[in-house]
Queue: 3 jobs
Job 1
Amino acid sequence: MTAQKLTPEVSGEALNQLQSLLDKARELATELKEKMPPGKTPGRDGSGMAELQERLADLESDRKQLSINLAEHEQQTSRLMNLYVATYQLHATLDPAEVQSTVAEIAVNLLGAERFALLFWTGDETECEVTLGQGLQDDPAGLFSGGKYVGGDSMIDATLADGVLRIGPVAGSTALAAVPLTVQGTTVGALAILKLFDHKPSLRPEDRELLDLLAAHAASALFAARVYSATDRKLKTLENLVNLLRKG
Amino acid sequence: MKPKKVLVVDDSKLLHKIFDLMLRNCTVVHAGDGVDGLEKLAKAENADVDLILLDMNMPRMNGLQFLAQIKADKAKAAIPVIVITTEGKEADAERGIKAGASAYLRKPFKNEELLAVIEGLSA
């Protein structure tokens, strides 16, 4: 930096610049004062700065809270979406095989079940028929061999008896969950979740909602499909009979 | 990566419905198995498919067979593929990656997990 000789011209120009700077500072101070809340003024003690920092911290805290709320909201949306789709698919068909297939899809794709069995009481209620299952050949207890379940797992037996949804661990049971299948207050069977995929160590709290949904909808959807299927078959038989009589 | 048109190749109707909702900002093309998936991809109107979600266990043509066909086709080999594995074992996912898949997702998965994997493709 080179020193400039203080001539009247130079000092006059410096004074003008200083005046201009002071004017700008005054304008900025007025602007800042207008932006401050009533009763507060930015001072040399830093009180204005402290307030601004406080407000910034508040904003940061609000942002974090909003971020948490958004994550929770997304999780809830995801849960509701699964519940909606599960219900929709269960009631989207009147074909019993398709309803059973949907139950299996819910068990595998939404619950992460590697081994499960869909059980329905046979007529005399002494044993259950395994109408659908996956991985049952690897079941260490061997309770589902031959497509029948005659009892032996305390949790499944209790659910089949009283129609109450149970989630393990339960003494005397290797099942993870026993979901009752109930139609008009009568327990007609159960879905036994026996093992989850290795990467899913246990059932999560949100899985309970899906199990509740299966308990409420699976049996009625399957029952409606079976009734429709039987009625449709009878109707077709009658129609064929009528056609034969007309021809004769 | 923000895909605009996604081909979902899966034999589960339930998952197709879920993908429809998860990917509501994209056009979703549905295929029930590998054979159906190849047919859908061959159509001119699906030339702009920019992501494939592929189930590994399907009837007729499974995920690996579908992947082999895609990767052998120069016009389609560059489309990123996310394989969806049902198995608890990693083997399926590893086989998919070795066959040319860009990423994998294990069932059951959450909305945010799918979106994170898709985001990860651009990283």
Note: The CA atoms of residues 38 and 162 of chain A lie 69 Å apart.
Job 2
Amino acid sequence: MSKLSIRNFNLYYDDFHALKDINMEIGEKEITAFIGPSGCGKSSLLKSLNRMNDLVEGCSINGEVLLDGKNIYDKDVDVNTLRKRIGMVFQKPNPFPMSIYDNIAYGPRTHNINNKARLDEIVEKSLRGAAIWDEVKDDLKKNALRLSGGQQQRICIARALAVEPEILLMDEPTSALDPISTSKIESLVQELKDKYTIIIVTHNMQQATRVSDKTAFFLSGEVIEFNDTDTLFSIPKDKRTEDYITGRFG
Amino acid sequence: MSSLRRIFSFDHIIRSLIKLSALITFGALFFIVGYIFIRGIPHLTLDMFALEYTTENVSMLPAIITTLMLVALTLVIATPIGVFTGFYLVEYAKKGNKFVDLIRITTETLSGIPSIVYGLFGMLFFVYRLGFSYSLLAGTLTAAIMVLPLIIRSTEEALMAVDDSLREASFGLGAGKLRTIFRVVLPVAMPGILSGVILSIGRVVGETAALMYTLGTAAKMTDGLFSSGRTLSLHMFVLSNEGLYVNEAYAVGVVLLLIVLAINGLSTYLSNKLRKGE
């Protein structure tokens, strides 16, 4: 059974029909990339998967998103627990203006882990998981805002890992970063695959081919094609996919 | 010819005008402060800080203490209401909500009303209608209504300056609204909120018109919520108004000026800290 099933999913911003009848099965411990031109709905779908779209005024949905078979839009679902299970990394690095340690410990503390030794352990494990432990281990009290952009983004990934999510949503996590930081994050994503199901939105097709197992191509709120990354990029079925990946539009 | 052209060149004229404006501004400020200090400092005697007011010593100590009590009580009432209103407007209310528009229009209107109008309202409502008479309570309530818009606005602005991506990050980790506001948003917005509160202190300390007919002008120290008193500003106003103690009024002016300068300095320091924090 797939980890996440998106079924007949529609999303509206007021009258604007932003996502049209999306159907998608996302397997456990796979990396899925969402690609497509700006405004095609890929970020909207990503935000729908941990209900961050609840915060957007005028946003309404119908259809289902099943996490392990349970619809996350059911009335009895606790949004905070859901977001603990499905973590998110944002486009722009957004560490809290506090120490590195407190950034990582914020999530666990939110979910009532206050034991110092336990927190220390989680912080180290998360920072190691995000491949930044060696760079910051002597300076955990330092304000996270004083790190470089690439380091900040890895702090944000570590912060997301600290609540032990099952799925990690990444919304163009490297678009604000330089090439070296980008390649660090990309190899990190590869490592994280062993433990997490990852969905990554990207503008960068090379990135999609480098990191993902499956790719979905979005256009004007529809999923045009969803397939193994190798297949999609080598023998696209749809003319529009071909046009996009060969750079003819978008 | 060429030197004449240099003197009357457009650039030169503008630069002179700018320098002149700066000079006038600083000049006026230094003149006022200097004038008050020169007139006031020689008359600052130890007698003026006696515990009891008499017509001989015209002590300002009761007025200082009344001022402190008024400021403290005003803040106790206005700060929570103002800060929570600001929180409601920014964090809880939906955009385009009619009630929010109403609160915004009300606060803007309230902040534009001349303070004597607050005084009149306070007198008619608190002093007569509710029967508080000239009292610390009536003065406090009037001053609280007067500074409320200031606190609401500064809270609102401080909260709106907090980057939305921080709220998203917190929600994304499964934190609820309250935790997000108190652990992430509030620490960032704190200096801005505080500087609004400090400006309100300055407003209350410098106020006379709104307090004259609510707090009253009794020269003794207030001995309770229902007793009249006078703040330092009122004390200065009454002294100079009576005509007998103009020199002492200047001495009070010196003390008042120092207090206001200290408050403004603190406010500037905090808003600088806010800007650095971003």
Note: Residues 61-92 of chain B form the longest helix (32 residues).
Job 3
Amino acid sequence: MATTARSGGNASGSTAQRPNGTQQNKNCQFKLVLLGESAVGKSSLVLRFVKGQFHEYQESTIGAAFLTQTICIEDTVVKFEIWDTAGQERYHSLAPMYYRGAQAAIVVYDIQNQDSFQRAKTWVKELHKQASPNIVIALAGNKADLSNIRVVEYEEAKQYAEENGLLFMETSAKTGMNVNDIFLAIAKKLPKNDGAHNQGAPAGRRLNDNENNRQTNNCCK
Amino acid sequence: MNELKAPSLQSLLESDRGSSDSLLAESLLDVDDLDDVEYSIPPSGELPTLESALSEFEADSDIGSELGVPAPAPTPTPSLAEEGGVRNGGAGGGGSIMRYAMMHGVSAQIASAADRVNAGFATACAVSTLIGIGTSHGHILNFDITQTLRWAHQDKHGQGAVSALSYNPDCTRLLAGYARGLVVMIDTQSGDVLRNLFDAITPNTGVLHLKWTSRPALALCSDSGGSVWSLSFTRKLGIRGCSSRCLFSGARGEVCTMEPLLIDSSHDLDQYCIIALATLSKYFIVTIRPRLKVIKYHALQGPADCLPVLAWQMVLIQAADTTRSFDPVLVVGRGNQLFFHQLFMANGRISLLYLRHVQMQTNLLSVHWLGPKCVACMDISEILHLIDVRSSKELECIDMANAGLVYGSAQFKGLATGGNVSPALALAGTHACYNSLMSRGTQLYILGARSLHMIAVRTWTERISYLVKNQRWQEACDLALDGYRATAERPRRKAQAKERIIMLFKEYLAASARAPDYCLGPIVKCLITIGELELLWTQLWERLQNKSLYLQHITEHIENDNIHRVSPTISQALVDHWLEISPTKLEEIILKLDWTCLDLNQVLKAAKRYKLYRAQIYLNTHALNDYSSPLTELIPLVAQEPSGLGNALLVYISSCLAGRSYPSGEIPNDLVQNVKHEVLRCLTSLHSNTSVPNELPYPYLRALLKFDTRETLNVISLAFQEKEFNGELGFSHRKRIINILLEIMTPENTTWAEIGCLLNFIAQQISQQCLKPDTQLLEKVLNHLAKEKITNETTRQHSERESAWHELLINNCLDEISTDEEQLRLAKRAHCYYVEEYLLEKLQRYDDIVECYLNNDQRHDTMFSYMERHVQQPERKIYEQIEKHFKRMLEINAKETTRLVDFHFSAKINKLLEVLQEDEQSLLTFLEHLHRRRFVLTATQSAQLLALLCKFKPEEVDEFVRQCDEYRVEEALSLVLAYKLNKSAIYLYEKQANYHNAFELSVELLATLHGEAAATFAQEISDLCVRATNVLPKADCEKFWFTLLQQILPRDDLKSSTKHMLHLSSQYVDLPKLVQLVMNTRNVSGNFGDIKDLLMSMLSQSRLETDTMEKTLQVKCQDLANAFARKRSEAKRGLLVSAMRCAICQQRLYNQSDILVLGGCGHAVHDKCATTYNETVQSRLNNGDISQTTQAEKDAYNGIHVACPHCSAEMRNNFYNNIIKLSEPKRTVSALCEAAFNIQQEQQNVNQMGVLKLKAPPRKFTCN
């Protein structure tokens, strides 16, 4: 008989045992930060992803907003803790606080706005320089529904992304185009099994838990 | 496990191991037919092991299965359920500390042995890695660790019950003692008897105790005679032997109990073999190896029916000086007392140190250590108490009455050996249970007649598990936290404790899945205390349906500063939660939280919406490092919002300018400069960001000034103390700010009070040399300061104005624009007396300084100290000023003024009085105060004062005339009479000794008075009468009294004092007259009651007088009788005549004539001769022949001092006047005299003087 006393996993990245004890889903928790020029649609993108909503006149974000969303990839439950930073220049100083320790970042630009693309490039540079080396960066060209009046060409952005090892998609928060896909792509790219992507402490604890489980199993025989 | 399977009882009985054949032979049972099910014999092979029984969480629980312990198959034996079997109770532990379990396997075997082979009930037990049980019919059952019966042994020698059992330390040998004295050694492996010792102890006694010592082949045995024997086992040439030696004889006090100290080899004491012994009156600590020696003994008192109890335990002792030692501790108990002693080696000697004393409620049966921290005591009502030794507190108690404890009374009473024990031991043995309670480690075994029970002390972990199992989460959490805190600074144990708490948390999660809110608080507290916040944010949070309780708990912890961070998810929920309930509370929480865990977008928007300005400021400054936007956003709101915002902003500005962050802490060093600059820039910006077309300049500063000018200026002046505002640049900053302030505060849109604040502020700045004086500014300031009148100016504002001006003057800031004279004029005009005074002082124009003080209401007190200070300096002209302002000074403080004048200018009082002459009121005040200061007034002054008093304060006249003596009485009297102040007049009359007038006036006055006043006054009149008695003749007095009484008696309102008055008067007047008066004046109802006392006192007085008379007579008679008796006794005294001849005629004395003995000298004369001699002397005196008369003769004549004519020896006076003639029988007298003479002759030479002294007074003898 399986142990019933032990249910639920540990903190981030630990395993959970379902009551039936056969199927074991992994639980992953990732910190994701959205960066980009103001009014490129960061908040809209997140809102679309988390709540499936879109507001034509989205209020501008102050400081940073926090949201969570959980998705399933194969047998892994991925929980995103999303920090949607404010794009205004005055909040720039806050950004390091949020991308420090983040496992993933989405840099957003507006395809109608060349400046926002340039700003995105600076963000990418800053991330490469300051953020954790394993960070997964995605570049999102937002407002793709308005591609008829685009300024930033798809190819240009694509090329830039490839050069810098970024995930790239053109998205539209309004239509929902590519929104889930870009998050899924990030989730897939994020490492889920080894402890490398996580901080040291939770990984160590998980190993212990595995040991315990094994012992318990032996005892039950 | 097959090899462990115990042989069945049958096989044991049939085997040749042990000696059970006789038992089999006598057994009436058909062993073959024994049916386990029918007789409820548990299947012995499947019993849980002892170890598992001791370590599993609960007997009969299914937790055992979780631990992988194979569960026992259900047994038909009804288990002694915990709830039904014992009543749990007790103090702190809540029943979680002690664990009770019944040893089912052992109990079943005991019962079956008793039932089937007639083994009798259990009487003794021994517990080591094996369990041994002895029975009343001499059977010994030996069980192994799994409670399996290994062998049984039956005594064949008819030695009665097994009274003591003991395993040796390595558990290879079992010693068993019997009630009739046999000691048997058995091999524990096989059950074979190795030694039978029939004569090891005193013959005809039973074994009470058997104990192995720390030496392998040495055991101790005590018998019911109270002796202790050492048993040394030998094996010489393969033959087992035993030598027994008596260590203590019971003749000198019977040893009731003994306890060897078993010690591991690492301790200093291991070279010794130590035992503790206790008799009914003492206890001893004794070494028996290497040699027998008593280390210590001590008296042990207690109730007669209580046995002493002993127990050893190795304890880690931490001394006061933090040294630690691991030493044996002995607990000695008797009655309800427990004493703890530490045994240790010091300088090569073994010493015993008293540690502590514990007093229990009831008397004790036994004491056993359960681990080094607790002691278990069974009391006489069979309740087991668990005592924590360090705190001396009872942790828990458990009622063991159901265990059916076996008592060893039979052994102590020696029933098996004919009862040959001392009565004391037999009485004490009533409660003996030494061999039925055994401890091992933290377990205590309790032997019942048919069962064996175990009590174990749970460890911390086990207690938590127990509480968890019973769903007592609150207690479990508290206990867990206690344990966690107790680990203090030991990291390894802390980690273990933490792990246990995490386990507890998981158990909680599993157990409370259906009611996730249940006992949430303690769990949250646990997690926060151990710092496992991740669990709190994820696992606990996610499973909750209703989050509000959780949020409440978290809020509590935030408010108590236990946590400063929460996860963003929780913080979002927290903000939403409190926004609904109380936004104010939310603000408090936000201020306490680390901003990095907050969703800034959410919080800032909420703060704006709900006007949480402080939170807004906090987040703007901390998170965004934006110090100016709070100002630009909030200052415009100041006017519409409640004052809280304005005040918060002022605090914020002040702290920013001082380099502190809001609401607490410091601004990081690298930011301070920027922040200060930015805040200042923002405050002094000419236009706001959202510049409205017709905006007035400096909107921010203006709004703040409008909100509260004074406080804003205070903030600025505080800021000016920072280093940024010092130095050349700083001063220019100041200048700029002040200019801005002046620009903002124009009379058109601000009140004068506010401008006053500003100008005072500027004046301060100028006088502190912080601002370049600038003529224009100064004039502006001075203009304000010197304003003659400002409408609605409060006292505070005025004094601020004055002090600002004063500051300016002190620092000579006004020199450039005006002169002191000018200033003086201005100050006078503006009523700034303080300034005026300062200027006068400066100009040395002292004449008017006092006037400044006088004009300034606040400084009246200082005026007097000023005058006091300078009174000695003539140039200050103090006196002149006093004279000038004397009247006002008297009005202000007459007392102080008078004191000053009296003290320093007493010579000039008359002058001052003159000054006051026309103002009678002031004069009166001055004179009055002079009088109160005991200043001696002249007669005129007194008269004047009296006159004024009569005029203005007639009620004080009376007091004055009584106190003062200086006035002339006649004048005063006429004055007083003129003002009809009768009381004073009466006093003055009396002072004049004019009692008649005084009395008449009094009586008149009394007639006008009524009620209480009349009564009091009547009393005064009577006092006056009493005083008059001493002066006036009696008749006058009587007249007074009668007049008074005539007045008083008829009046109804004076009835209360009538009696007293009558009583008083009766001392001074004739009583009969008084009675008559009373009878006559009692006009209406001649009440007998009123005069009753009077009559009574008359009667009693008369009786008293009669008594006195009688007594006097008696005394007189007594005196007379005494005098007579004295005379008579004198007369009766014998006389000694030393001469044979008359001293005058020189003839023989005894010649039939009367003789006169002169006494004293012993000479005698004839009566006739004496007469003649007398006449001769008299005639000689009469003839005036004075020259011939000797002095003695003169004396004789005068009859005062009479001398003997022969020797001139002095005689008693009045001799000639009081001659007593006695008629005595001649013969007798002569015989007497002759006898006396003879004696005298014989002794004359020897003691003439002595004889002379014995002479009697002169006496005359008459011969008839």
Note: Helices of chain A lie at 42-51, 95-99, 114-130, 154-164, 179-189, 200-220.
